[in-house]
Amino acid sequence: TIRDETPDIDISGLQLNATSCGLSNGSITGLQITGNSFATIQWKNDAGIVVGTSRDLQNVSAGRYKLVLLDATEACGDSTNFLVIPAIPAPAINSLNAVIQPATCDLANGGIRGIVLSGTIGPVFVSWVNELNNVVGSSIDLNNISPGRYRLKVKDASTCDTMFSNVFEIINNGAVTIDTTNAVVRSTGCTRINGGITGIRITGADQFQWINADNNLVVSTSIDLVNMPAGNYRLVATNSLYSCTRQSRVYSITTAQPIAVNITGVTAKDASCLINNGSINITQLSADRNLFSFLWLKDSTVPMGVSLELTGLEAGIYHLIATDTNGCAKAIYKRVIVMLAPPVIDESALRIANDTCEFETGAISGITVSGSPGPFTYRWLDVAGQIKGTRLNITGLVSGSYVLEVTDANNCIRNSSVLQIGKILTNLPVPKVVDLTIPRHSNAVIKVGNVLAGGLYELIDESSGVVIQNGTTGQFVIERVLTDMSLLIRVFAGPCRSTEARFSIKVIDFTKLEIPNAFSPNGDGINDRFRIKLTGYFRLDGLKIFNRWGQQVFETKDLTSEWDGTFKGKFLPPGIFYYLIEGLDVGGKKLRKSGSITLIR
């Protein structure tokens, strides 16, 4: 069966519903559609704009609309004529001719007028609300209102909802604002007029006046107030176009207090040595030194300098004055510099002992030192500038000139007068010596019995007058004496000398060997070695020592050699050993001796 699917619209049941309250609540319903299996449904307004795609047109505003049914495949269709959705009259707010009057100078002198209402059903209620929705007016015109944003609120007796106008803004012409958030008040200086008020921000003003609140005189026409003395000031800002003004609170500029500063580090030195060499050096302050200038005054009147260090000072009272960046001056330090007395050398009790025979017996004592602070250091100097002593009293001097140099704790130096040590000449004691009798070929040891310390002794061969030995010990040794001798001995000390002492050495022919019969080589330092003592002359041909089995354990041809009780580097046990000595005596005769030795451990 072939069906006819040509699109067709039946408007016999048409229903048009008008809009109300100015809303998009109109509709067209009741149309019947057939043959739409392959067709599309479109509702178009009189501008050709598609406003719906279903059979019923809902929620549209008042206007002209038509339904178009189109089969896109076969290019056939159907449509209605324009159908009109009417509008039921509704209340409306007409603000096309509204007049907005700005406010000025933050005053309530603004207004909104000229708004017209239409379509209302009485009674009608109107009100003006601000941004906080607070009611600020109840008539169609808004008068005497402050700057702000406002809208009109309207409700009539119809079923329509309350209407609101657009937001109207009443601007604030000529308004002046003063922001003191960052205001800074600077005190004026003690001597410098540099007080000020700065950092205030102003908008809307083109004229400024700072007024002295104490006498109402204008003192400045700039935003920042500078170089002012102490006083009370307020700022008046003006918008000359609208004659608006605003003024600040009263600000007080006070006189600055001196910046606090103390001396926390100082070194000072009094004058000394009768020289203007005192000093004061400020090494540390409790505040930044760059905030101050300085002035030193002596005895409160005489300027002495502007740095923190003074040198070359005489005795006096010194004050340091610090002046800060506000010109405030304050005395922050005081120091009395005194002239320390130099050392005083008193020679009234001086005692001088002269030198005898250059024995360095000269001495100086009795000097006293006083006056300046100690401790003192001393130096005794001879004419060549050589230091001879470092104590107040001095001994051990030879004849000559000496000066005491005294230095105190301040390095002040004072010298004594030149002090003279005299020279004493005298005969020295005659050396005491005794005649000697010794074996031929032995050494003669000569000892002076009254040795003079510091003396120089000379030993003289009387027959020739030749000095054969000299020395300071008073002891001489003549080796291997063969014949009798006649000798002289004398002593010298500088320019002094003694009378010569005469003595003799008598030589006898004699040979004597002293041989011990025991020794104890145990390391105690007592009798640890076997040794033979010779008196006179003896030429040793050989010394041999044997153990009790006849084994030779020691041999030497040097009489000064000693046996330590060892054999081939090893200690021998305690026991009896035997010696054999052979040689020539003082007469050239052969001498042979033997015996036993006991080795004790």
Count of alpha and pi helical runs: 0
Name of the CATH class of the largest domain: Mainly Beta
The counted number of beta strands is 70
The appropriate CATH architecture of the largest domain is Sandwich
Computed over alpha carbons, the radius of gyration is: 70 Å
Category from helices, strands and their pairing: mainly beta
Q: Roughly what is the average pLDDT, rounded to an integer?
A: 92
Helix content: under 10%
**Euclidean distance between termini CA atoms:** 162 Å
What is the approximate shape?
Answer: elongated
Tell me the number of structural domains: 7
CATH topology of the largest domain: Immunoglobulin-like
Poorly predicted residue ranges: none
* Percent of residues in β-strands: over 45%
Largest sheet: 6 strands, mixed
3D structure, described in words:
The protein is mainly beta and 601 residues long. It has 7 domains: 8-85, Immunoglobulins (Immunoglobulin-like); 92-173, Immunoglobulin-like (Sandwich); 177-253, Immunoglobulin-like; 263-340, Sandwich (Immunoglobulin-like), CATH 2.60.40.10; 344-424, Immunoglobulins (Immunoglobulin-like, Sandwich), CATH 2.60.40; 436-508, Immunoglobulins (Immunoglobulin-like, Sandwich), CATH 2.60.40.10; 511-599, Sandwich (Immunoglobulin-like). Strands 54, 56, 57, 59, 60 and 61 form a 6-stranded mixed β-sheet that branches. Strands 5, 6, 8, 9 and 10 form a 5-stranded antiparallel β-sheet that branches. Strands 16, 17, 19, 20 and 21 form a 5-stranded antiparallel β-sheet that branches. A hairpin with a 5-residue loop joins strand 50 and strand 51.
